[in-house]
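Notes from hallway chat w/ T.B., transcribed later so I don't forget. T.B. wanted the structure written out for a chain they're using in a teaching module, and asked if we could keep both sequence and structure tokens in one place. Agreed to drop them here.
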Amino acid sequence: MNEKMKAVGLYTYLPIDHPESLVDVEMDKPVPGKKDLLVNVKAVSINPVDTKVRGPKEGVEKEPKILGWDVSGVVAETGSEVTMFKEGDEVYYAGSISRPGGNSEFHLVDERIAAHKPKTLSYEEAAAMPLTSLTAWEGLFDRLGISLQPEENEGKSILIIGAAGGVGSIALQLAKWAGLAVIGTASRTETEDWAKRHGADFTISHYEDFLPQLKKVGLDEADYIFCLNSTDQHWEKMMEAIAPQGKVCSIVETSTPLNISLLQQKSVTFIMEFMFTRSLFETEDMIKQHEILSVMGKMFDDGMIKTTLTETLKPFNSESMKKAHSKLESGKMIGKVVVSNSK
């Protein structure tokens, strides 16, 4: 008889205030594949990908669909070809969008996209970090091609749109560490203060044109733009503010066609970042996510980067998950919310 475990999932795609938007379920405990870690989940964080996947749409699932792509926990079992981890290791990771998520007692993850949990962070603090850390790192250094050598970035600037959110909070810190002049967009006193505490030299409003505001803080343009909020809404403002031969990266899909001709005159590079690409397509460099999280783990332990956890919810059940989804969907979330399974 298969061993069972508790989880939080969905069968139908509903608004979060519907009683059955997320439900408590019982499932078979998963069995690790060759390169898998079976992780005893201690905490998960909620991200926009959770609310997008859960949001209202057609279709009914025969088996419960499990969300949750930010996990920290303890390795309970390893697959036959696992080489980097052993039972009892504390890990953190974002997982793969093509596999069941981590909102469950036990969860499977490929070892190539997991890393040892930072020693100085609690399970809750660690769970807040993988997805946003990977997205920020890949966006800045893999997609925009920003140098990891601060001296090479002297005199260069970056505009981060949506600076107080989960990804923005890490991108600010990494951009500052990389030696850039950092400008973040924020719309309220609380988000302006948060952005400045996490690395922004200046904040500007995302409701107004960017270029005049940049000029007010002494910048004629931005060498890089990292768009973490509404690509469509900010497109023309970004094209006006980006430097000739500058680079723009967005993590937000568009709902309307973009006028890409605006890229031409300045020879601007535009690129998208999707944190799940490496695991979804099992790219040859999939292990890069293990490497990034390992480097970030050392940065957390050395105090160079701070966790962005702002709220922890308990117990680990559907009611807590619903509260977390509601907070995220309010649009006023600062930092990250985590649901804890730690005793």
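Follow-up for T.B.: The two ends are 28 Å apart (CA to CA). Might be a good example for the class.
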